[in-house]
# Entry
Amino acid sequence: VSAAKASLARLQQPKLAVAQLHWSTSKYQPLQEKALWEGIADVYDEGLCDAVGVSNFGPIQLQKVATRMNERQVPLAVAQIQYSLLTYKDAKDMNSACDDVGCRLISYSPLCLGLLTGKYNLDNLPRPGNPRRQLFKELLPGAQPLLATLNAVASEYGKSQTQVAINWAICKGTVPIPGARTLVQARENLGATGWSLKPDAVAELDSAALKVTKPMIQNVFQ
# Structure
């Protein structure tokens, strides 16, 4: 509660739209887990937020926290996880999990740290010293069929790979929150809205995503 009040003071706002737990502690501090649940519910009871949410919770923990929020009559509005074509194999179960508890699924890193933008390949990796360099070197070989499919769909629709990857996340029923470091990137991201991939294109991308031999590592706290 004190942390929420401090956030509101910094934001100069009377109330938060959503107060969100950043991750589950069940795998490394299990005794802390329920204390965090009660704390976020207390934030709602104090009238400091309109609803609560969770981040980096898997289906099992989501069901548990949803049950407790329901007992305390606290609206659980959102669950946020890493969700992209390169995490779909592990992330897809969260769609039905969110449907079961009645919350929206927010997809962070829908471009997989930029790997799905089409900007990078094994001959053009992030600069030396960038932690993504080694990660992309490991992920790119197994992602080639997916990236080829993504490029083909982008060409068919007259969109960029970035826009198709984000629109795919929208079509999967998520609310994507892609990052942008420049105005150009922000405008490109906005180009993912106002249109939709057809079901056959979504299915084609789904199939390619499920065949990735080395998907992006999911957050360990899920």
Summary: The two ends are 25 Å apart (CA to CA). The chain has a mean pLDDT of 95. The first helix runs from residue 2 to 11. Strands lie at 16-21, 49-55, 76-82, 104-108, 174-177.
